[in-house]
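Action item from last meeting closed. Structure (633 res):
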């Protein structure tokens, strides 16, 4: 009798649990959106996810059974409706989390929620989102089906007479949950996969907790000292410790610019450029990116230990133009739109440059259009791949005012998963690494057209090229061990960086650390400008080398040459130390996270100082202190 009444009473609840189980099974069975595996140790991770998910629902429905027995029958139906409505609203959140894992290897978190709600009302956002999902139609169809079946089951259950829950139902479900959570504990300890497998409420709650705990604290004197040390700026304005005036330039500059000259600048952010692919030390670069490699051999300087300071694309583009580290919990393009800035395009505009930004990815997806609309004289979204993007860039380049220097900033798209190229490029490979390499060669071929066109117009002798990536992109092997290593790791941050200009000695390799925040001050230095700014990086051709910082998803990385310390933000000890670069990689698809090294006491001290510097930077952005208060917006 107990079993029969138990199965009759929570029919909708049982359907919800079954659909969630099927969704998790699909998540770990289907290939990721890039075509590879979602994670390594898939069997353990699947068991952990199933135990915790079913355990969560056992707790919810077990407590619900106790609550319904406590209510008077007249109120019971009302509360059943309320409960089912909450469950119905929660299910789409679960499926959004599933799609984020498949596309980005990330869980739903505070920063991504801010980006979504900040961009969802903008034109083009939904078009871009739908375009991505169409490429993954099977997984999207399954997600919609799971939600629909559960909703229908809940709606049908409301038409039936609700029996009083059996007396032992609540206790039985809570006991069942305790067994499941106990069974999952060894898996958490063994493979440290909790962050990847925990139900959405746990991950979001932990995210909000960290933000509340660390987000409002004003930096101490020690924090400010750590920040000034990290950016090598003693500072003169206590209210804006990032503000600095560089030393006057010496001419000719490293690239050959002379006093009074205003060189053109072409800055290219290549979507998901992996540093272990774009390694100019390797002769294989002649096969992977032949046009950029030829430019490197002719007049290029490559920084092979270059990193993005954040992830994903929105943060990478902001770091590259704004010259400031990412915020540990917030999305700069959404949360700091009112912050006063002196970005690279703003400073070049002050110097009389004609500024154009062209992007192959809809900026409303990351809420970039507000900042970039202020920073550039003209910007455009150019869809359908890098070939169309480059053709449009060359049209606008030729139509630029002839009496003004030019700053063109390009953001490519063809190397974004799932690596869709024009039909004439042939059939897309099923192997994700082969698909990425094919897209990389396609991007390189089109970027080579820009270089050839600039040389043909006669402006090459006064043009500075900068090629980098908005961030890296983890391969299957890296994604499989993200939870063991932590974020941000080299799979997300290690990207290429190439400077090219007539005055450079070709084929130059630089192995000291570089990052996106170094690009703006380096460009100013190569042009011979001595403008005040808030860039946290250094002029790579004049200043002493120092470590780089990457911040993402509640994690911090301190990167020094070929090693990196990775750990969660808000605590001092790093989780792991890696030698991420063990030399040029002949087989990029087999590249992992590198070799694990011993964490020394000096590493712990350096990581604690890096955390303090990040805290100070976040507070400065939150309180509009990047520039002195006397400067206008």
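Sequence:
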């Amino acid at each position: 009798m107990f079993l029969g009444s138990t199965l009759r009473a929570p029919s909708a609840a049982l359907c919800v649990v079954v659909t969630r189980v099927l969704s998790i099974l699909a998540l770990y069975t289907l290939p990721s959106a890039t075509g590879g595996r979602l994670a390594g140790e898939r069997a353990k991770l699947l068991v952990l996810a199933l135990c915790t998910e079913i355990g969560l629902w056992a707790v919810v429905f077990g407590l619900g059974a106790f609550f319904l027995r406590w209510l008077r029958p007249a109120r019971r139906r009302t509360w059943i409706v309320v409960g089912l409505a909450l469950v119905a609203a929660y299910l789409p959140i679960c499926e959004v989390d599933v799609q984020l894992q498949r596309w980005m290897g990330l869980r739903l978190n505070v920063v991504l929620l801010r980006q979504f709600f900040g961009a969802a009302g903008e034109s083009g956002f939904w078009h871009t989102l739908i375009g991505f999902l169409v490429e993954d139609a099977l997984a999207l169809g399954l997600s919609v089906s799971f939600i629909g079946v559960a909703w229908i089951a809940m709606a049908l259950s409301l038409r039936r007479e609700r029996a009083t829950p059996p007396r032992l139902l609540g206790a039985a479900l809570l006991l069942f949950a305790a067994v499941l959570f106990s069974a999952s504990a060894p898996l958490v300890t063994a493979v440290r996969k909790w962050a990847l497998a925990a139900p959405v409420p746990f991950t979001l709650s932990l995210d909000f907790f960290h933000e509340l705990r660390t987000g409002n604290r004003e930096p101490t004197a020690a924090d400010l000292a750590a920040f000034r040390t990290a950016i090598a700026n003693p500072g003169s304005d206590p209210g804006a410790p990032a503000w600095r005036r560089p030393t006057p330039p010496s001419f000719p500059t490293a690239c050959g610019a002379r006093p009074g000259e205003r060189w053109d600048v072409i800055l290219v952010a290549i979507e998901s450029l992996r540093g272990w692919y774009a390694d100019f030390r390797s002769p294989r670069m002649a096969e992977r990116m032949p046009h950029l490699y030829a430019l490197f051999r002719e007049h290029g300087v490559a920084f092979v230990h270059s990193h993005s300071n954040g992830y994903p694309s929105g943060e990478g583009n902001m770091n590259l133009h704004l010259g400031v580290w990412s915020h540990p919990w917030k999305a700069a393009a959404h949360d700091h739109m009112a912050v006063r800035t002196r970005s690279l395009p703003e400073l070049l505009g002050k110097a009389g440059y004609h500024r154009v930004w062209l992007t192959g990815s809809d900026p409303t997806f990351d809420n970039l259009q507000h900042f970039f609309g202020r920073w550039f004289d003209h910007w455009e979204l150019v869809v359908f791949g890098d070939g169309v993007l480059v053709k449009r860039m060359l049209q606008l380049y030729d139509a630029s005012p002839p009496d003004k220097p030019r700053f063109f900033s390009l953001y490519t798209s063809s190397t974004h998963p799932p690596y869709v190229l024009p039909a004439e490029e042939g059939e897309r490979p099923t192997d994700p690494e082969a698909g990425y390499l094919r897209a990389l060669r396609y991007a390189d071929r089109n970027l080579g057209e820009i270089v050839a066109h600039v040389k043909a117009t006669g402006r090459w002798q006064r043009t500075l090229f900068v090629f980098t990536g908005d961030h890296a992109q983890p391969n299957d092997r890296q994604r499989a061990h993200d939870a063991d290593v932590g974020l941000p790791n080299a799979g997300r941050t290690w990207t290429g960086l190439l400077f090219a200009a007539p005055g450079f000695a070709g084929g130059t390799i630089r192995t000291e650390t570089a990052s996106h925040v170094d690009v703006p001050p380096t460009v100013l230095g190569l042009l011979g400008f001595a403008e005040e700014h808030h860039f946290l990086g250094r002029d790579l051709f004049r200043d002493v080398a120092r470590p780089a910082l990457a911040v993402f998803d509640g994690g911090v990385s301190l990167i020094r040459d070929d090693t990196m310390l990775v750990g969660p933000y808000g605590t001092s000890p790093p989780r792991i130390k890696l030698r991420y670069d063990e030399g040029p990689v002949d087989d990029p698809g087999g590249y992992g996270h590198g070799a694990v090294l011993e964490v020394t006491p000096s590493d712990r001290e350096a990581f604690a100082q890096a955390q303090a510097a990040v805290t100070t930077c976040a507070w400065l952005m939150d309180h509009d202190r990047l520039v002195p208060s006397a400067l206008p917006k």
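Note appended to the action item: The chain has two domains: 2-214, 222-622.
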